[in-house]
Amino acid sequence: MRRTALSLALSASLALTGLGVFAQPAGTVDLAVTRLDCGTSPGPSDVARFSDVFTHVGLQVPIVYSCYLVKHGDDYLLWDTGQSMSAGAVAPKTTIVDQLAQVNVKPEQIKFVGISHYHPDHTGQVASFPQATLLIGKGDWDVLTSPKPPPNANPDRFTHWIGGAGKMEALPLDKDVFGDGSVIMLYTPGHTPGHHSLLVKLPQKGAVLLSGDLMHFRENYDTNGVPTINTDRSQTLASLDRVKKIAAGTKATVIIQHDARDIDRLPAFPAAAK
Ligand SMILES: [Zn+2]
Predict the structure, then answer these.
(1) Measured distance CA(63)–CA(61) in Å, rounded
(2) What value, to the nearest 5°, has the Cα angle with vertex 252 and ends 61 and 118?
(3) Using an 8 Å Cβ cutoff, are 161 and 168 in contact?
(4) Ligand 1 ion: Cβ-proximal residues, 5 Å cutoff
């Protein structure tokens, strides 16, 4: 009798503790992911340059440029900002701001802009969101703010934040964006020093993992090919290993942002995965 009463009391207190710890349990917040078109593909291109293990010489894959709108209750995270409108043949047909208008989201509702890495095809329209808190890997921030940034970094797009007028966080490791574990920027360095991928735990679809440029096409992900332009090969391999384990553990849908064959892993714009 006494044991039963004790265990009941223990269960009750554990349940109460649980409520305290998980004040906002996963699944109660309105979460959604919408893909935005952030650049057009001129057609299939040879992707062998993205792999240094010579396994896919001659393989042609349509390369696309993707950004994502992540809704978390009344707040929004914009993940990557794609090509700029002046990028010529690969420029998007519609600005991110105009695409957001089609789903009734104003630029000032974007609370966070998360940047996977500093390359120009991921930062093209960041300046359209000056009110947002910029989230970017510390290693990449250090490159953007270095005395001589490399030619494939565009610090001018970040003038608002570099000059101190905008809120920003330079992330040394992972970042739990909304503090409830539902949207996590994963530290996955190697393509660039501060590269991040994004994990979103959707209540219905399940986990979705957005690659950034940890990998550029499906076959490359499967064979651990590394682009020769990456800043660190061993970091890339460690990041691939981590992401594959996270994807297996969370049963995530892995979406390679540049691989056109992954576009239909999310509903077509303006629909959202929930
Ligand atoms: Zn890149």
Answers:
(1) 6
(2) 55
(3) yes
(4) 119, 213
Peptide bond preceding 120 in cis form (omega within 30 of 0): no
In DSSP terms, 34 is beta-bridged to 69
Residue type, 266: L
Contact 1, 9 (CB under 8 A): no
CA–CA separation, 141 vs 18, rounded Å? Answer: 38
- How many CB atoms neighbour CB 129 within 10 A? 22
159 CA to centre of own chain: 22
Of 90, 148, 146, 141, the residue nearest 118 (C-alpha): 141
Strand partners, 33: 70, 273
CB-neighbour burial class of residue 21 (10 A; exposed 0-12, middle 13-18, buried 19+): exposed
Interval between CA 17 and ligand 1 midpoint (Å): 44
pLDDT tens for the 274 residues of the chain, in order: 455 454 544 444 444 433 434 444 555 799 999 999 999 888 898 888 888 888 888 999 999 999 999 999 999 999 999 999 999 999 999 999 999 999 999 999 999 999 999 999 999 999 999 999 999 999 999 999 999 999 999 999 999 999 999 999 999 999 999 999 999 999 999 999 999 999 999 999 999 999 999 999 999 899 999 999 999 999 999 999 999 999 999 999 999 999 999 999 999 999 999 9
Q: How far is the CA of 139 from the centre of ligand 1 (A)?
A: 14
Going from the Cα of 108 to the center of ligand 1, the distance in angstroms, rounded, reads 27
Q: Let me know: does 124 contact 82? Beta carbons within 8 Å.
A: yes
DSSP E strands in the chain: the ranges are: 31-37, 44-46, 60-62, 66-72, 75-79, 110-115, 133-137, 168-171, 175-176, 183-187, 196-202, 206-210, 253-255
